[in-house]
Design a protein that fits this description.
The chain is mainly α. It is 81% helix and 0% strand. The chain is built from six helices and no strands. The protein is flat and about 80 Å long. The N and C termini lie far apart (76 Å).
Length: 186
C-alpha cells in the first residue's frame, strides 16, 4: 500500500524538477538585480539611502521582538531608542544649544564602548565554548553558545545602529553651524 501511494506521489509531481530549477534561477536573477539597484541608489542618493536603511535597521527588529516575545531585547531597544531619540532631537534643533555636541559625543561614545565590550565578551564566550572551556564551569554547550551569540549580536547590532545615528547627528549639527562634516575625497 505504501509503495502504491509513493508511486502515485512521484507520478503526480513528475516534471517539478525543471520548475524548481527555474524558480532558483529567477531567485538568483532577482537578487542580482536588486543588489545592482541598491548599489545605484546608494551612489546616486546616499542621504536617502542612509536614512531608509537606518530606519529599517532600527524598526524591523521590533516586529520580530514582539512576535517572538524577546522581552530582554525589547527593554534594551526601548531604552536605547528613547535616549537616542532625545539626543537626535537635540542635535537637529536650530539654533544648536552650546552643550549639544558634547551630549551627542558622550552618548554615542558610551554606546560604542558598551557595544564593543559586549561584542568582545560574546566572541570570547563563543570561542571558549568551541574549545570546551565551558565544561570547566559545568555549563552546557548550548547555553554557553546561546549566551555568546546573544552578546555578539547585541554588540554588533547596537554598534552599527549607534554608528549610523552618530553620523546622522554629526551631519545635522555640522549643517546647522555651517560646516561640512564630509571630508573632500581627492
Amino acid at each position: 500500500r505504501c509503495r502504491v501511494e509513493h508511486a502515485r506521489m512521484h507520478a503526480k509531481h513528475r516534471g517539478h524538477e525543471a520548475m524548481h530549477a527555474e524558480m532558483v534561477l529567477i531567485l538568483i536573477a532577482t537578487l542580482v538585480v536588486a543588489q545592482l539597484l541598491l548599489v545605484q541608489w546608494k551612489q546616486r542618493h546616499p542621504r536617502s539611502y542612509n536614512m531608509v536603511t537606518l530606519f529599517q535597521m532600527w524598526v524591523v527588529p521590533l516586529y520580530f521582538t514582539i512576535k517572538l516575545y524577546w522581552w530582554r531585547f525589547l527593554v534594551i531597544w526601548v531604552l536605547f531608542s528613547a535616549v537616542t531619540a532625545f539626543v537626535t532631537f537635540r542635535a537637529t534643533r536650530k539654533p544648536l544649544v552650546q552643550t549639544t555636541p558634547r551630549l551627542v559625543y558622550k552618548w554615542f561614545l558610551l554606546i560604542y564602548k558598551i557595544s564593543y565590550a559586549t561584542g568582545i565578551v560574546g566572541y570570547m564566550a563563543v570561542m571558549f565554548t568551541l574549545f570546551g572551556l565551558n565544561l570547566l564551569f559545568r555549563i552546557k554547550p548550548e547555553d554557553a553558545m546561546d549566551f555568546g551569540i546573544s552578546l555578539l549580536f547585541y554588540g554588533l547590532y547596537y554598534g552599527v545602529l549607534e554608528r549610523d545615528f552618530a553620523e546622522m547627528c554629526a551631519d545635522y549639527m555640522a549643517s546647522t553651524i555651517g560646516v561640512s562634516s564630509r571630508r573632500a575625497v581627492p
